Please model this.
Amino acid sequence: MSAFNLKSYLHTCGQLTGEALHRFLPSEEVPPCVLHQAMRYSVFAGGKRIRPAFVLATADCLGLPHGGAIHAAAAIEMLHTYTLIHDDLPCMDDDDFRRGRPSCHKQFGEANALLAGDALLTLAFETAASAPAAPASLVRTLAAAAGSRGVVGGQVADLAAAGTPADVDTILFIHEHKTADLFRAAVEMGALAAGATPDTLAALSRFGRATGLAFQIVDDLLDAENPADTSFSCIHTLGIDSAKARAAELTNEAMRALDGFGSSAEALRQAARYLLERTT
Amino acid sequence: MSAFNLKSYLHTCGQLTGEALHRFLPSEEVPPCVLHQAMRYSVFAGGKRIRPAFVLATADCLGLPHGGAIHAAAAIEMLHTYTLIHDDLPCMDDDDFRRGRPSCHKQFGEANALLAGDALLTLAFETAASAPAAPASLVRTLAAAAGSRGVVGGQVADLAAAGTPADVDTILFIHEHKTADLFRAAVEMGALAAGATPDTLAALSRFGRATGLAFQIVDDLLDAENPADTSFSCIHTLGIDSAKARAAELTNEAMRALDGFGSSAEALRQAARYLLERTT
Model:
């Protein structure tokens, strides 16, 4: 029995990340005000700060106080927010709402939303490059995960596959890049900030990837409960039972990657289990 | 009389930058192929590689061989190309053509063009962070110049001012951020790659800023010859004669910033004069 309380841990991580984002984002009084309003509107929209929590929990696991990884945590949340803003645009998923509020382009217009996304992506790298340790490695890790062979590549494949029954290889490509790459990067950035050895980095990287893949399957399962959703989903191909089994198997894979870490990895383990249990 | 030949110098810089871009950009055979095709379509569209030439000429001026600054040169051209792709989108300037060919979104569709721009912006930072010297400083300099207080901020102000007569402060804000920030960053990145002292960096930074401001006025003068152009222009406020005088004055300011540099800065001086002389 562990006395560790995941809910309060995630709450603390979210608060630290929120405070850092307030510090790193330009004030709404800095011109052009509408741009900074749009950036803050989307960054402070009630997101759960899951990716930053994985950055901070990884740093924790390696003995680095949260302050040492806060640039990485804020950077990955800025980057995640840019992907949501651009995803919602009319030429992409064309979503008018996000977390119960008008999406960024419904609130500020398409051009301002496009540019707010661009500015958040840019600020993510400026923030990572301002970290106290390993700034260039943080930037390279984040950029490789976010770029054409990572998140952006996954989005292109996702758009191409929408509305068609996808084969298993296509599903894996999309889940790997659209989602798992950023979870992997979150964990790797926490590890790099803490000065992890290559072996430790590799094990944590496997944990981040498996957790991200499981997270996306669970997301697809949750979306499957909404019959109006026509976006790409692995459930059309795998079916509900097989998708649930695959998510559980990936979560076990994530746990095995942490075998050598002992109790210092308790936050990572519980966070990964919590993501799985959203559907079960 | 200098024996220095600017035309052949710029040609060499363009060739080196083009070769580096070919190396750093993923091949069109890497999935998702359409994304990499779109990125390469826009990067290899016949651009003049002016900003990379300023990176390389600054490195030259400080005794750094071109190879030492090639990451910075390629990064700034990727970043410049992303701004062109996003600028051309329907929600921005809605341009169907760029350099005599269909713009990226006319050729590949809006979503792919949006994502190709995102991927180039991301790759610009990955490339800068892979430089052999001062990678984190290069990323911070490029991001600060490109972000919400730089190029993106200038574009928001430019869109807000289009079609209205702007006052001189607004013109300066737009020119400073939409254009001069990236010229300044080009020169600063060349200087950082070469390990410049703070005083040298500051002088070169003044040179880059003044050259960029002059460049944008000359661009507005060239656009004024096309009566179909309705985008924001300083000519509506300043008039042709006053704009020409201001561009010449800024070029002189750029020359004065190089006073302490002797003949090693000949490429920078001639390049700045060449940009001015496009209209006269």
About this structure: Chain B is about 70% helix and 0% strand. Residues 76 and 84 of chain B are 13 Å apart (CA to CA).
